[in-house]
Specification:
Blueprint lengths: L6 E5 L5 E2 L17 E5 L33 E4 L2 H6 L3 E6 L2 E2 L4 E2 L6 H11 L8 E5 L3 H12 L4 E6 L7 E2 L7 E6 L5 H11 L5 E3 L6 H7 L1 H10 L5 E5 L4 H16 L8 E7 L4 H7 L10 H10 L18 H8 L2 E5 L1 H15 L5 H15 L8 E6 L4 H5 L5 E2 L4 E3 L5 H11 L2
Parallel strand pairs: 5-16, 8-9, 8-12, 9-11, 11-18, 13-14, 13-16, 14-15
Antiparallel strand pairs: 1-2, 1-3, 4-5, 6-7, 10-17
Helix pairs in contact: 2-3, 2-5, 5-7, 6-7, 11-12
Length: about 425
């Protein structure tokens, strides 16, 4: 067990610090929407050996134990892609499956960093309850793997159209159950379904961006980069659906400055959305802290049209204190847009140069990097971190018989709350 007193929580809006009583997602004394952050006792991180997996960064993770089977992101200096783009200091932080590069995440996604951190934060008071996670696909796959292997009861809510993302090397432990919103639904519909389930006292929310364990798990991508490079990068590129990974990157940046050994610069966060699903870009380009109106029907149509389905979050943590708007303002960052065609071209370039197949989401990030370089908006000598958030699926699938998680129940887009609650409770009786 890890001493849970190694950190405190801090409300971004008020700066109030308080103890984590086990699964706190916000400050009960704060009257306005705000994230809370972890404040670690250790200001200088001591990175453990690779044998610890993700927990090599445990000094800056709000965990109570270490689970088996985790892997950390891997950072390396690009040669072929960098040469192709004319960049002198391009570093790739790889989360996925590419053993030749030392990357061994068997779900092929950096969502494993979230799952291994969040599940290791669970305290004994939640042992008899069921964790609830809503997902567009990759997050569900990661949590299903971790919960299945560690006998943690889990209810997933996923859009029916995204069920192809729920593949596994082996059958899952029956402690993992799946519900889906019917065809035509999107991530927001899955969130709505999970919120109905949470009305039952049998369940508790994972919390999404509000869970410090999720953000600090994702922040290990920046810790990987900074400790490998020896300094904080100048630029950080990532595609975003919720923006939680970019918020986490900003928070890691601030901790690294306090550490004192990695420089004092603030990375410019360059985040990207997949057109036509670009609600955060639309708000950002008119400098609006608040999200603009985005009708449900149009959002569902736009989500259906994008290749990177995992980027289709209608209600991201953009506006609240400590959210993506604040992160972009503090870092001098920007939001970019890439079309499906641009992302497909970027995916092809990455495979040709780095020899690794990548998902559509990181291809969106790479497309934005290519665009900024072509427009002369980046100094070729700048230190750039490209967060490749999912890769290696083709290699992972080779020679394997995959197992797909099927939904225990599919609900309409306007579900009856009582029916949902009764159904999900029966699944875990």
């Amino acid at each position: 067990m890890i001493d849970p007193t190694q950190y405190k929580l801090k409300c971004v809006k008020t700066d109030r610090e308080f103890a984590d009583e086990g699964w706190m997602l916000d400050d009960p004394q704060c009257k306005e929407p705000s994230l809370v952050r972890t404040v670690y006792q250790k200001r200088q991180i001591e990175v453990k050996s690779d044998d610890y997996g993700l927990y090599k960064f445990a000094d800056w993770l709000p965990v109570r134990r270490m689970l088996e089977g985790s892997a950390a992101p891997v950072t390396y200096k690009s040669e072929a892609l960098a040469a192709r783009l004319g960049l002198e200091n391009l570093y790739i932080t790889l989360s996925g499956y590419c053993p030749s590069r030392g990357a061994t995440m068997t779900t092929c996604s950096f969502k494993e960093t979230e799952a291994y951190s969040v599940c290791a934060r669970i305290d004994e008071r939640h042992a008899d309850k069921v964790l609830v996670v809503a997902s567009a696909g990759n997050t569900a796959r990661a949590f299903a793997k971790v919960c299945s292997e560690n006998n943690i009861r889990l209810l997933l809510a996923v859009p029916y159209d995204n069920l192809s993302a729920l593949w596994f090397e082996k059958p899952l432990n029956p402690c993992v159950k799946l519900i889906a919103c019917e065809k035509g639904g999107d991530y927001f519909d899955a969130i709505n379904l999970s919120n109905i389930a949470l009305k039952s006292p049998m369940f508790y929310a994972e919390g999404g961006a509000k869970n410090v364990a999720r953000r600090d798990g994702m922040a290990t991508t920046v810790l990987s980069a900074a400790t490998a490079i020896g300094r904080i990068p100048d630029y950080y590129f990532q595609a975003v659906g919720s923006g939680t990974g970019a918020i986490a990157a900003w928070e890691a940046n601030m901790r690294l400055i306090e550490d004192g050994r990695f420089g004092d610069n603030t990375m410019k966060l360059i985040v990207s959305q997949n057109a036509p699903f670009v609600p955060m870009y639309d708000a950002w380009r008119v400098d609006s802290r608040e999200m603009l109106p985005y009708g449900a029907a149009k959002a569902r149509r736009d989500a259906e049209r994008i290749d990177a389905k995992v980027l289709s979050n209608r209600k991201p943590p953009y506006s609240l204190a400590g959210g993506l708007y604040d992160a972009l303002k503090a870092s001098g960052g920007d939001i970019m847009v890439a079309t499906n065609a641009q992302a497909r071209r970027a995916k092809k370039i990455f495979l040709e140069t780095e020899g690794i197949d990548i998902y559509s989401a990181p291809a969106v990030a790479l497309a934005s990097l290519i665009k900024m370089k072509d427009e002369g908006r980046i100094d070729p000598s700048a230190c750039i971190m490209l967060n490749i958030t999912g890769a290696g699926e083709e290699l992972m699938f080779r020679g394997k018989e995959l197992h797909y998680l099927k939904p225990d129940r599919v609900f309409p887009l306007t579900p009856d709350a009582e029916q949902v609650i009764a159904a999900v409770e029966a699944m875990f009786e």
